[in-house]
Known about the structure:
This protein has 5 helices and 6 strands. By secondary structure, it is an alpha+beta fold. It has one domain. The strands form 3 sheets. The chain has a two-stranded parallel ribbon. Strands 3-4 form a two-stranded antiparallel sheet. It has a two-stranded antiparallel sheet with strand order 5-6. Strand 3 (126-132) and strand 4 (137-144) form a beta hairpin. It starts with 12 loop residues before the first helix and ends in a 5-residue tail after the last strand.
Amino acid sequence: xxxxxxxxxxxxxxxxxxxxxxxxxxxxxxxxxxxxxxxxxxxxxxxxxxxxxxxxxxxxxxxxxxxxxxxxxxxxxxxxxxxxxxxxxxxxxxxxxxxxxxxxxxxxxxxxxxxxxxxxxxxxxxxxxxxxxxxxxxxxxxxxxxxxxxxxxxxxxxxxxxxxxxxxxxxxx
Length: 173
């Protein structure tokens, strides 16, 4: 599992499953896979999860699976949405907004979380941005919505402008 000479091309499905189990065992003490967030809800905490579809480190499907299990464990979408929300972007990559399309900046996500915690304003939309890393200018913006909603282009308007998009529950995700 920590072999720097490991050749992933030789990995069989059986060995992948073994390594997955070893990984879960190694990190189980931090309980990142436990969907029971009822203690967070009871104490009034808020959780804002963000995930890039293009993330090359954390699998999008595993985050969505985890959030779906949180929803089931915590009483459904309305109950869960009162204290935890997942926002997904299709433009950024792991830990950066330098991906191929708009992504959530730490500042935009933190601002949304602070408004939720401090003013009770649950985020219904967070604007994702694509920043030109050479000029540090925003070159595209797109709204993101709480899962399971996805962002859809209206069919008209500048694709680089956030107002050209709407929330949709139609998804292949």
